[in-house]
Amino acid sequence: MSRYLKLLYAILIGLAIFTIIRLIIFTAYFDLFKENSAWSIFVAILHGIRFDTSIFLTIISPFIVLLLLPINSQTYHKIIYYIMFPVYAIITIYLVIDAVYFGYVSRHLAGEFAALGNDYEFIFTMAKTYFWMVFIVIAFITLCGYFWKKFADLKVNDIAYSKNSIIKQALYFILIGGIVFIFIRSSFDIKPISTINAFVSGNNSLANLTLNGLFTSLRYMTENKSISSDIYSFYDDKDAHDFILSLKHKNCTHPFQNIEKPNIIFILLESWSSYYVDAFSGSNMQLTPNLNRISSEIGGGIMFMNHYSPERRSISAIQAILLGIPPMDNIPKLGFGLETIAGSGNLASSFNKNGYETIFIQSSKRNSFYLDIIAKSIGFKEYYGMEDIKQILDYPDYKASQFGWDYETYMKLADTLKDKGKEKPFFAFLFTGTTHIPYAEPNKINVRFPHDANSENGFKNTLIYADWSLGEFIKKIENEEYFKNTIFIFTADHVLGNFEKQEFPDDFKVPLVVWSPSFQNHQKITATTNHVDLPPSILGLAGLNNNIEDYIGEDIFCKDNESYSIIHTWGSAAIIRNNEWLKHSFKYMLESNPKDMDKAEKEYLSKILLSYYQESYNIMTKRKK
Question: How many Cα atoms within 13 Å fall on the side-chain side of residue 623?
Fold first, then answer.
């Protein structure tokens, strides 16, 4: 067989892997694409080959060079092809992981693996959770290895070492090398192909059908190496600043002004979608009676009915809430480089400067997402993780909850706050974890459904338990001196995402309740709000925020139905305002709702979105100066 033909077959086999995974994604998550025409779907899949070819040839280019060398050794060629197989196997595994991840967030992997850092236990846990899939993939790769060996053993024709033959081989090398280079760049512009090129269709779902997780991940890593101010430069800086500032409301008040120097307890609930909370969904699932009661007229909580997480990742939520910085393309996440750009300027340090005690506690292990280091670096004076929390209740398997038990975490916070609030007020931040997949079976009184660690029933049981734990925490502290002078804030990091079938933007909607036992004035606020609005809101509740320019977000008690919220997905973002929304790729306008939205309205929403990101970048970097 010709060595060139054999190499071509090897390349086509690799590209077939990408296409098969893309078709699996299309089939498994058909609901995400069903609104598009058959022709547009076909074009998107076809367009995907361009991205597949670019990233695949980039990865195997060293092998192509080695196989094009004029070496007449069958053993040499066999060894090169044998070495290629593990690379193909790794590509396959990564694309399968990406396909599973796609089902949770409706987009491909980008910087998620980098964000895991050295959290190998988490990776091992997820592998156990999807054991059946791991087994199938390994079995498939093993079978493919058998056939690949037969392919690798195919002999290639020798090359004659004559002068003319050497010249001919050199020309082939240059020609094939040039073709490979063109396919890698996949563009005749100055810049090579990038994620943004997938959005030329103007449709977010089709763009994600076009892309693959390997391309988006490697582009994320390479593009994050250098950060230029030009990335988020759409208008003159002053114009963007003034425009965003003009959309904010001034001199507004909140309902808790009678509480001087309040203590603030912020509860970040893992994966509590509004969908599962009756007070927000209007359903009758009866999974969260304690949060429902707090949110009700009897409880007196203030509910924000249209509150959104800016992204479907916990670290993005924590970043938005504690720093007020939204997740942004080409900007690393908190704990993975953001600190070198953003510098200081966050909730904990602001509270410290104003005489507050600051406490951070999470149910998962200390080094999960480096949160122990993050908490210290952004100013929290006390930090506790799973290693500091003792078992109290009896569970079928205490160690089964990889992300800790909420009840024990709440009790740890209750004990920590026992002697606080007397001389100094405090700001306490608690992040739960039991409702994270895999869903460990909780104590017997909270198991209502047949339990399965990977099913919706398993999630519901952990949610019932998590809400019960919240109720027990309130009972535990309600007789403490600080209790009546405390404002509680309850929200979720992101939606669950993999069981409830929600249309955009409801698939980013999470509950938000602000409540104090000393204030009974139940309200349902319908203004559109976001996690990035919480830092100025929390400081406002404490009477500490006088400058509306410090954060990109706006105090939630100032917002009205004309206010907006921004949601971020890799390669694009969406603005939600007054029951309308528009998606944008930072270069092109994408879908909108209503579909026939007036052109002027589209341009206005685009201007808000682009100015928002430009001002976010400028606020973030100016903190460092």
Answer: 22
